[in-house]
Amino acid sequence: MNDKQIQTKNKLGEGLTFKVSRFKEVIKKTRPHKHDKYFELIFLKEGEGFHSVEDEKFVVSTPEFYFLKPGQLHFWQFTAIPKGFVVLFKEEEFDAIAERELLEMNRTLLANKRIELKPENFPAGILEELFSEFKTESRFSKPILHGLLKVLLGKMLQLAESEMQKPAAPATLFGRFQQLLEKEYPKLHKEGTQTFAVYNQ
């Protein structure tokens, strides 16, 4: 597939630099696409299937979190209805000086394409509040939304840090296959050698 066939989507809408929505609750396979100049935080609470990001293919294992940067190629293939939230934003939404810490947290979190979550760690409360405030559009909505986003980024960084301290579990299908092969190979090799020895007696 060449660049001309790859679709570039803009789910933010014309003129917007921040948006919160519920994940579309439909079973579908999307075509490989990129997002136009915005970050996408995806929080999946339910769903099954696959998510391909660049050259990695992840098995959807909810609850989980994905962080896509601008221009990153990805697509979905769901086999069960997904449920969750999507937060979209451009860096220009934030004040580069007054909100420097928030922007730095965002850049630090970029190292994580995906974070597996425990059900008790899924930030449902923060996400519901973000979604509700986004729809409210009051005079104070912008600072509230930015404050909630900062809390959300902090929570994800905290979880990412705790995950790094655990033995790494491969997230891709190939990685899981490799791990299983390494674990089972000595046993299978031993059984195969014994069978061969009995056969040749």
Protein model, in words:
With 201 residues, the protein is of the alpha+beta class. Helix content is 37%, strand content 27%. Strands 2, 4, 5, 6, 7 and 8 form a six-stranded antiparallel sheet that branches. The radius of gyration is 21 Å and the shape is globular. Mean pLDDT is 84; it is low at 195-199.
- Class based on secondary structure composition and strand pairing: alpha+beta
Oligomer: single chain
Low-confidence stretches: 195-199
Give the helix level as a range of percent: 25-40%
| N-to-C span | 55 Å
Helix count?
Answer: 4
Cα gyration radius (Å): 21 Å
Q: Which sheet architecture does the biggest sheet show?
A: 6 strands, antiparallel
> How many extended strands?
8
DSSP strand content? 25-35%
Mean pLDDT: 84
Order of helices and strands: EEEEEEEHEHHH
Principal-axis shape? globular
What attributes characterize this protein structure?
single chain; 201 residues; alpha+beta; 6-stranded antiparallel β-sheet; 8 strands
Can I get a quick summary?
This protein is an alpha+beta fold and 201 residues long. Helix content is 37%, strand content 27%. It has 4 helices and 8 strands, in the order βββββββαβααα.
What secondary-structure arrangement, pairings included, does this model have?
Layout lengths: L6 E3 L8 E5 L10 E3 L3 E15 L2 E4 L4 E5 L5 E16 L10 H10 L4 E3 L7 H13 L4 H24 L8 H27 L2
Parallel strand pairs: 1-3
Antiparallel strand pairs: 2-7, 4-5, 4-6, 4-7, 6-8
